[in-house]
Amino acid sequence: MLKTIVILSVALATTLQQGVTDDPAVMGAVTEQVAVVAARPVDYGTVFARDCFMGDSITSGLSYYGLLKEEQVISHLGFTLKKAAGELDWVRENQPENVFLLFGSNDLGPYVTNESFISDYRAMIAALRDAAPEARIFAQSVIPVTAKEAVSRPYLSASRMDELNRELYQMTLEEKVNYLNIRKVLQLHADENLYEPDGLHFRSVFDRYWLDYLIDETKTEE
Amino acid sequence: MRHTAARPIILLLLGALLILTACSTPASPAPPDTPVSPPPPGEAGDETGGAAGSLPAGPTAAELAALITAGIETENWIAAGEAELRRFYTWEEGTALDDAVFYMAATNIQADELTVLALPDKDAALAALPALEGRLAAQKKNFAGYLPEQEFLLENAVCLTKGRYALLVVSAQAEEIREAFEAAAE
Fold first, then answer.
1. Is residue B78 part of a domain?
2. What is the spatial distance between Cα B43 and Cα B52, in angstroms, rounded to a whole number?
3. pLDDT computed for residue B36 by the predictor
């Protein structure tokens, strides 16, 4: 089963790579329209059994919808990097193989600078390395709100996120951790409205597409 | 002669009428308020069952849920099963959940929820109440300081038992559901 997933994943990843420019940090880096794919019949709990996901309400959906176990999803509504750095007991006790981080929506506010956010990210990575030295760490790009929602939350607009994600990507190079541009998920399914009506959160189907993307990007045969 | 010829036709018509009457007569439907007793806990699906007198009285959880949500806006709910009920609630060991209804919020950023439990007796319903209260407390903590509209719903949630039934509802129409529950749960 996993082998089949990997084969499909490699095929899709190849498709994606064909359209990537020199700037992998932002949405605009993908220049070719890629094939729209449906969520796959995957047992995500098995595929990500040895992994940990940390983040805010977007990450919370992974356990809420029953895709992953509660304990491996360390998340709360309104969760931030600073708060998460203090909740690493499960990581320390279970030593996950991979840790996927998705933060930003609550960390960023009208008066929060990119430098401050990146500084918090570095502190989080340091705390994770202390808790699970062997874990592969993945920093995932911050996802913008919809253009409509950006009117009231300009600090989460697509242009701000492009700028921020470039800095986040640079930081991952310096810290020697991995970067995942999960905004590609939105482009893969551009024909669907994946956002909730609030323009900030995502419908449940996004979570499956997101995990499919992570399989493509991280679950290759050793 | 005419009288003799008509006799078979009359008999035929009478026979047909009898057949039609038998086919169209409903099989004594239960009145709407007649309770349908579920099998005793632990014997769900056992066709041999116990004696009829040992069955708990009153509607099943599904019947009660249908009654109390009639006319209620439920688009924020999705039907969930026992697995979700066990995932989101912390139950005392041995709590029977085979006669239960659980609707969870359609997304994790909504607090809307409906749980209706039909338990063997009043004591069992009271014993299940802490699990419902615990879920409500956890959700209040979950949404605290994040989504004020959801916090409001949680503050005005209804959590109670009546007879052998227990109810937790988080909804803009929680009060209407409470009134219907108290009227229907006997």
1. yes
2. 13
3. 31
Provide the domain limits for residue B154. Answer: 57-184
The pTM for the full model equals: 0.76
Q: Residue B171 domain-assigned?
A: yes
Q: Would you call A198 an interface residue with chain B, using a CB distance cutoff of 8 Å?
A: yes
Q: Look over chain A and give the mean of its residue pLDDT values, rounded to a whole number.
A: 85
Q: Closest CB to B108: pick one of A61, A70, A198.
A: A61
Query: What is the nearest CA distance from A64 to chain B, expressed in angstroms?
Result: 6
DSSP lists the bridge partners of residue B20 as none
pLDDT given at position A136: 97
B29 found inside a domain: no
| Exposed/middle/buried for residue A113 (C-beta within 10 Å: 0-12, 13-18, 19+) | exposed
Of B84, B107, B143, nearest to A196 by CB-CB distance is: B107
**pLDDT band at A38, cuts 50/70/90?**
low
| Both structure tokens of B5 | 């010829």
CATH superfamily of A2-218: SGNH hydrolase (3.40.50.1110)
When divided into structural domains, chain B yields a total of 1
**Phi, psi angles (nearest 5°) of residue B38:** -75, 165
Asked if B147 lies within 8 A of A77 by C-beta distance, the reply is: yes
Domain contains B179? yes
Interface predicted TM-score of the whole assembly (ipTM), two decimals:
0.76
